[in-house]
Write a structure and sequence with these properties.
Blueprint lengths: L8 H8 L8 H4 L4 E2 L37 E6 L16 E6 H8 L16 E5 L5 E5 L8 E5 L3 E4 L2 E2 L10 H22 L2 H8 L12 H9 L1 E3 L9 H4 L2 E4 L7 E2 L5 E6 L4 E6 L8 E4 L8 H8 L16 H25 L9 H15 L8 H14 L3 H18 L7 H10 L3
Parallel strand pairs: 3-7, 11-14
Antiparallel strand pairs: 1-8, 2-3, 4-5, 5-14, 6-13, 7-10, 9-10, 12-13
Helix pairs in contact: 9-10, 9-11, 9-13, 10-11, 11-12
The structure holds zinc ion.
Length: 434
């Protein structure tokens, strides 16, 4: 057992006889979530003298949706019977540690629980990279929007670490964090016990970049490999971000990071599965990447977001002079909105009086945006739409359709309709005094 760092004998005595108290949120107004440590933490693990919580966690019948409000439960999605086997559910089950309200949100989703869509053929492999451990590679050429993988997560649990008990007397903040990590690990052990042996083996085969910060083997792997799923279900009392969930997969969790990703993933609550799709045309043999960080942030902020994963991104946007990359990323909404406003003015000018430089400036902007890997952002389709309309105005139907087609591919890849831009463009026009 790892040793903690409670040094005073007096405090040890007090703790050995006192179990931590569960929070009464209304009375104590606790912090809702806790920021977790990473890297090498001195004296990581359960603090010495810490008496573990004995909070019963409800485990209800799979069909039950009227659990008490606020109850936390273990459940398999879709419903798993005691005699179920993989033949019954070839896409597998997700072991979930969720609140009663989230379970209801999932079950009330229109179309739940349909089968996940599947690609026509296997079009990727997982194999060793030269410098990033395992990774995913395309095994055939892919077009933007193509479905690469559809997968149910192995495990789903709250994304943020929620504070559920008061700081024991005599504990430092660091010890408190370690105790919370310990409780979280213990709570998730039940999910692993519920898995089929194949799924459990797949989970423990995943990488873990949190071996020295007090995270247990389950929490560490979830922190390393989990994808946030916040759209469609989350704990409303914590808000959309802190109330979100983290989903860890067998295959999808093997994809490596790039700030210039060539894929995008979405989570479909109805089929309770991720879809990984090509965000641009991809050649057979290319490694597939998604972004673990927010692509619209400057390099320094992305570096901070990536630090807990234990690697430094060396993509072209992170190395060397990052000034131009940062400019495009952080200003891409303004750049695309202004471009659209310029287009609107240009389109209103009689054709024989026009200067057609708008085409080249729009293509240059597209090249900048694409080079920075911003294809999955909400404003990218507006730029495609503008370019398609410029070509249409110039009578180039072939190119107009080409860019229109890419806008359609974006909708498929992101599984959503583009924004309503009218208001945003009107604002851009006001700001830039067109
Ligand atoms: Zn990078």
């Amino acid at each position: 057992m790892k040793r903690g760092f409670l040094n005073s004998d007096k405090a040890k005595k007090a703790l050995s006889s006192t179990s931590p108290k569960v929070y009464d949120a209304s009375a104590d107004k606790p912090p809702l979530v806790m920021k977790l440590p990473y890297g090498k933490v001195a004296n990581a693990g359960r603090p010495e003298g810490y008496n573990s919580l004995q909070v019963p966690i409800m485990e209800m019948a799979a069909e039950c949706l009227d659990h008490p409000e606020g109850a936390v439960l273990y459940t398999s999605i879709p419903i798993r019977r005691s005699r179920s086997s993989y033949d019954d559910e070839p896409t597998g089950w997700s072991e979930c540690f969720i609140t009663s309200s989230v379970k209801r949100q999932i079950y009330e989703t229109v179309g739940f629980c349909r089968a996940p869509p599947q690609p026509e053929r296997v079009n990727f492999r997982v194999s060793l990279t030269s410098d990033m451990g395992l990774g995913m590679f395309a095994t055939c050429s892919l077009k933007m929007g193509d479905l690469i993988l559809s997968e149910r997560p192995l495990i789903v649990s709250p994304a943020a670490t929620r504070v559920t008990f008061q700081k024991p007397s005599g504990f430092t903040d660091e010890q408190y964090t370690q105790a919370i990590l310990f409780e979280r690990e213990k709570a998730l052990e039940e999910c692993l016990k519920r898995m089929f042996p194949e799924s459990r083996k797949a989970f423990y085969a995943l990488a873990n970049s949190h071996t020295e910060d007090g995270s247990g083997p389950i929490v560490g792997r979830i922190r390393t490999n989990g994808f946030t799923v916040g759209k469609g279900f989350y704990d409303k009392q914590y808000g959309e971000t802190s109330g979100a969930y983290s989903a860890t997969c067998d295959k999808l969790s093997r994809i490596n990071h790039s700030c210039r990703p060539n894929t995008t993933y979405t989570f479909d609550v109805a089929s309770f599965s991720f879809q990984l799709r090509a965000m641009r045309d991809i050649k057979s043999g290319e490694q597939l990447f998604c972004s673990y960080s927010t692509v619209t942030l400057p390099a320094a902020d992305r570096k901070r977001q990536l630090a807990p994963y234990g690697f430094q991104c060396t993509c072209a946007s992170c190395s060397g002079d990052t000034a131009n990359s940062d400019r495009v990323r952080t200003n891409h909404i303004d750049l695309i909105s202004v471009n659209r406003a310029e287009y609107d003015i240009w389109a209103g000018i009689p054709r024989y009086l026009r200067n057609n430089s708008i085409l080249q400036s729009s293509l240059d902007l597209l090249s900048d945006v694409e080079n920075e890997g911003l294809r999955a952002t909400a404003f990218y389709p507006l730029l495609l739409c503008t370019i398609s309309e410029i070509y249409a105005q110039l009578g180039d139907t072939a190119n107009a359709n080409l860019y229109l087609g890419r806008q359609e591919a974006w909708k498929i890849a992101r599984n959503q309709e583009p924004f309503k831009w009218d208001e945003i463009i009107a604002k851009a026009k006001r700001n830039f005094k067109f």
